[in-house]
Specification:
The chain is α/β, with parallel strands linked by helices. It has eleven helices and 14 strands. Strand 8 (259-262), helix 10 and strand 9 (284-286) form a beta-alpha-beta unit. Helix 4 packs parallel to helix 5. The radius of gyration is 18 Å and the shape is globular. It starts with 9 loop residues before the first helix and ends with a strand.
Length: 351
């Protein structure tokens, strides 16, 4: 079994990126098989429970109130509607249900409503995940008490590139929320977005930061930017598909026991590209027609792809390490643009 490390240097990560493509995928596949069934993929569903009107300035996000993307701000969904969506997701084969809200951070009155949703979805036998923005320690504890399994809060990119993408919060704010979530006993779902104009070294910096967290995230969503007209990143040069696969493979090598999730941007990926990502160690996807505000391959297409590749959905729901006295990915969520991981509430990305 590959030993877990939290002391990766930038040079070591870049050396992995620089490996010949076949060698990198071979190493990633061997590591993947040491920890997972190589032909099983976890299936999660993401629902935007409160869309639009976010005050943040994330350059990729159509839910930001600062950009004219044509997205109409909506109120928090009622409990019954969320539960109905969760039932549909379970019937379609999802084992995890992630709820995203476009907030900078939730107000206490809204947090209570989300806690009700968590409990109701958990009662259906689904794993639960939420992405609601920045959390205090008390808020994280309240969600844990409601039965939440995972909290999604993406780092988005490398520390040195972050200021080019977001100016309304600091990188440390994201790290503080992750620490609050860990201290509350919740599992973390944390990844980022690639294809935002960053360099390979900055992609390496994102993965290095994730791998050197005190605990590796349980789920690592890797989002490929979904460009939305009206956002500052519309028109950004597209990331080379092989570079995206390399990013998946390096994530698998750095975080061998984490679920590596193909998140936002799958609608623009060919079946062949997705197959390479699975070979590189991706073992989780968001399932369903929509990720917050952007499109996603439909269920029938995903099922057909699984059959062609001999892949089966991961049938056993991971058990939360947290014991809940009373009793719930996105997966990182991403904005409609494809990649924030949900901490801005609706990025179109997947948690």
């Amino acid at each position: 079994m590959t030993a877990l490390r939290h002391d990766w240097t930038r040079e070591e990560v870049l050396a992995l990126f620089d490996l010949p493509f076949a060698d990198l995928l071979h190493r990633a596949q061997l590591t993947h098989r040491a920890h997972f069934d190589a032909n099983a993929v976890q299936v999660s569903t993401l629902l935007s429970i409160k869309t639009g009107g976010c005050p943040e300035d994330c350059a990729y996000c159509p839910q930001s109130a600062r950009y004219a993307t044509g997205l109409k701000a909506e109120k928090l969904m009622p409990l019954d509607a969320v539960v109905d969506k969760a039932r549909q997701a379970k019937a379609a084969g999802a084992t995890r249900f992630c709820m995203g809200a476009a907030w900078r951070s939730p107000k206490d009155k809204d947090l209570g409503k989300v806690a009700e949703m968590v409990g109701a979805v958990k009662a259906l036998g689904l794993e639960t995940c939420a992405t609601l923005g920045m959390l205090s320690g008390e808020q994280a504890q309240a969600l844990r008490s409601a039965g939440l399994d995972y909290y999604n809060h993406n780092l988005d990119t490398a520390p040195e590139f972050y200021g080019d993408i977001i100016k309304t919060r600091e990188y440390q704010d994201r790290l503080d929320t992750l620490e609050n979530v860990r201290q509350a006993g919740l599992k973390t779902c944390c990844g980022g977005i690639v294809g935002m104009g960053e360099t390979r070294e900055q992609r390496a910096g994102l993965l290095q930061t994730l791998a050197n967290l005190p605990e590796h995230p349980g789920s690592v969503p890797i989002n490929r930017l979904v460009q939305v007209a009206g956002t500052p990143l519309a028109g950004t040069a597209l990331l080379d598909p092989f570079e995206f696969v390399r990013t998946i493979a390096v994530a698998r090598l750095l975080m061998p026991q984490s679920m590596v999730r193909l998140s936002a941007g799958r609608a623009e990926m060919s079946d062949e590209l997705q197959a390479l990502c699975f070979l590189a160690g991706a073992n989780s996807i968001f399932y369903g027609e929509k990720l917050l505000t952007t499109g996603n391959p439909d269920v029938e297409h995903d099922q057909a792809l699984f059959r062609r590749l001999g892949i089966h959905p991961l049938a056993v729901v991971e058990q939360s390490s947290t014991v809940h006295a009373d009793i719930v990915e996105t997966d990182a969520l991403i904005c409609g643009s494809g990649g924030c991981g949900g901490d801005c509430g609706d990025t179109g990305l997947a948690a």
